[in-house]
Amino acid sequence: MAYPNAEQGKYRSVSAGGNPRETEARALTETARRMSVAQSESVDIEEFLAAIRLNWRLWTIFQADLSTEESEVPQDIRLNVLALSNFVDARSVEIISTHNRGLASALISINRNLASGLFTAVPSATDSPQTSEPVTSANETI
Fold first, then answer.
1. In a 3-state reduction of DSSP, which class is residue 134?
2. Is residue 38 packed enough to be buried (19+ CB in 10 Å), middle (13-18) or exposed (0-12)?
């Protein structure tokens, strides 16, 4: 696989046992980055499809986690993310069957937007809503 390439250097290591929200946000950001890079016509179609499959696997993990009774995610958020998962499934199959690189733009956008929300600090009970600030940018290159 072509990731990382010489210009990108080695992947940064994320310590184990970190914040699950941040881990999910980083995974979404990284898969969005890979799909975005691979969307270029100069990239081999197999590398593009590998990026789509990687994203699809990530969303399958989200689906499995959200489908369990032990999931601590609030019901309304769970249903919204599962609905997005259904879209990601359908779009991934469409991209893989048609090799249409342009269709990946929606998946990239979904990943970036969801990551942005996950990167946003959740205020604790003692914080006022005005003190909540983003931890980092979802468009950060990993």
1. strand
2. buried
Tokens of 6: 């010489």
**Cα–Cα distance, 26 to 111 (Å, whole number):** 10
Whether the CB-CB separation of 101 and 43 falls below 8 Å is answered with: no
Do 51 and 99 touch, CB atoms closer than 8 A? no
Residues of the chain falling short of pLDDT 50 = 1-6, 8-11, 15, 125-142
**Phi, psi dihedral angles at 39 (to 5 degrees):** -65, -20
Q: What pLDDT score does 47 carry?
A: 98
Q: Specify the CATH number of the domain 20-120.
A: 1.20.120
Q: Quick one: pLDDT at residue 123?
A: 55
**Contact 69/46 with Cβ under 8 angstroms?**
no
Phi/psi zone of residue 99: left (φ > 0), alpha (ψ -120 to 50 degrees), beta? left
Question: pTM for the full model?
Answer: 0.74
Q: What is the structure's pLDDT at 3? A: 38
Q: What is the Rg, in whole angstroms, of the alpha carbon atoms belonging to the chain? A: 16
Contact 31, 112 (CB under 8 A): no
